[in-house]
Amino acid sequence: MTTQVTNQITTHIATLETLLQQWRPSFGQDYLAYRNHVYRIINHCIVYAEKNDIALSHDTLEIIAIAAAFHDIGIWLDNTFDYLQPSAQRANNYLVREGKADWVETVTSMINEHHKVTAFSSDKKDLVEMFRQADWIDVSMGMLSFQTPRANIRKIRKIFPYEGFHKRLIQLTLVHSLKAPLNPLPMFKW
Fold first, then answer.
1. Quick check: 38 and 10 in contact, CB under 8 A?
2. pLDDT bucket at 117, cuts 50 / 70 / 90
3. How far is CA 55 from CA 59, 105, 150, in A?
4. Are 189 and 116 a contacting pair, CB within 8 Å?
5. Which CATH number fits domain 3-179: 1.20.144, 1.10.3470, 3.40.50, 1.10.3210?
């Protein structure tokens, strides 16, 4: 995995770029919005690790990148707003194909728990909770910071702007709410 860092912000991960390019036709106009969302999550994970004295090995960074790439992908590749299971399944299939089946459990937990409203607790707490907080920081546009310095959030957002990501989430939520008014946010967990 080739990684490029600019001003302490990770700006290019080869594995991630390969995956995103494969899916680019399915994203349509949402490509840049999703790409930037994924990189913001990765960088928020890095900040979390630094803040909590967690060493990120090459493999751990790749696990985060793969989970980030796949975490919402079911929206676009499976055309569903109930996307956790399809996204996790696609990640699992990819990991098995790539000879990284030993990462399946961790990546699956990261994807399945990233919209958990309360803190995640288990033996895999660090990675799953790190990923959960990173996604919440981004989805909330920094309103939830989990004690991440606002300067870090702004610095990451400056390099990877929103590009309409949140507007698109609102559109998707409204469309899904009309179809399933009793379950408007099927991905949320308590």
1. no
2. low
3. 11, 20, 22
4. yes
5. 1.10.3210
